[in-house]
Amino acid sequence: MRRFAERLTPKSWNIILHEKDALETAGVLNILLSIQGQDRRVYADIYGNKCYECKGTSGENYFENRYGDIFYKNQVKPVLGMVRGRMIFKELKSSGGDKTGKVAKIIVQLWPDLVGWRVTLIHELAHVAVYRWRAFVTKDYKNQGPFKKYAGEYLRTNIIRKQLPMEHNHGPNFQKALVSLAKRTVREFGKEIPENDVFWDNLKFELEWFAFAKYGLKYQANKHETPARRKSFRR
Ligand SMILES: [Zn+2]
């Protein structure tokens, strides 16, 4: 999995499976792939908002998102992958205390046991690319302290895809990033992964879906997704 991600991403992206492998080198983006088990399953509503499992007064189970919307189990879907939290920038200091640059870190959580993990990983890496791009464009990485402005996203289930156009996180920048990762995938793995592998179908579906999402639905910009409300993550 690490090798797969490495071959699709720039050299300055350090794909790691363990915290201890993070590089303290200026300009490097450490991406921790955090593999989650079935016991730590996360659910999302159709907008990709994370849902919490709750118990009612009469013992019934239900799910609740952070806006207080209530769902039954058949109304929520397990999440396959998500960028957890935000991109963190850390100032590197030399022994003399001079600034020597920044190193960035981001965590991608994956539940790889559900379906093929490769397309999920490509999808999440596209989010990472957008975070990275935004950080440079907005210069937010120059701010002191943790990178607060762009909160993470809890998203990506197999069946909720049809609702994804409403999610502004999958807007034009995300699509651009996804397309360039897909091109890279074809260059890197075009000969390696057999043509009849279901991976290519899944990737094609992913691209077609988000290309389709390009048209319209701008007005749907999810009211839940305003930056102010995004601060209220619980993890
Ligand atoms: Zn996504």
How are the SSEs ordered, and which strands pair?
Elements: H1 2-8, E1 13-16, E2 29-35, E3 43-44, E4 50-55, E5 61-65, E6 70-71, E7 77-78, E8 81-93, E9 99-110, H2 117-138, H3 172-189, H4 198-213, H5 227-230
Helix pairs in contact: 2-3, 3-4
The structure holds zinc ion.
Zinc ion binds at residues 123, 127, 153, 155-156, 169-170.
Strand content: 15-25%
Q: What is the rounded Rg? A: 18 Å
Structural class: alpha+beta
Order of helices and strands: HEEEEEEEEEHHHH
Q: Give the end-to-end Cα distance, rounded to a whole number of Å.
A: 25 Å
Ligand inventory reads:
zinc ion
Helix content: 25-40%
Give the beta-strand count. 9
Oligomer: single chain
**Helix segment tally:** 5
Strand order of the largest sheet: 6-5-4-3-7
* Major beta sheet summary: 5 strands, antiparallel
Unreliably modeled segments: 144-167, 215-235
Count up the domains: 2
Q: Which term fits the overall shape?
A: globular
The overall pLDDT average reads 77
Describe this structure as you would to a colleague.
The chain has 235 residues and is α+β, with helices and mostly antiparallel strands. It folds into two domains: 2-40 and 80-223, no CATH class; 43-78, no CATH class. α2 (117-138) packs across α3 and α3 (172-189) packs antiparallel against α4. Strands 6-5-4-3-7 form a five-stranded antiparallel sheet, with no helix packed on it. A four-stranded mixed sheet has the order 1-2-9-8. The chain has helices spanning 2-8, 117-138, 172-189, 198-213, 227-230; strands spanning 13-16, 29-35, 43-44, 50-55, 61-65, 70-71, 77-78, 81-93, 99-110. It starts with a helix and ends in a 5-residue tail after the last helix. The chain is built from five helices and nine strands, in the order αβββββββββαααα. The site of zinc ion has 7 residues, from α2.
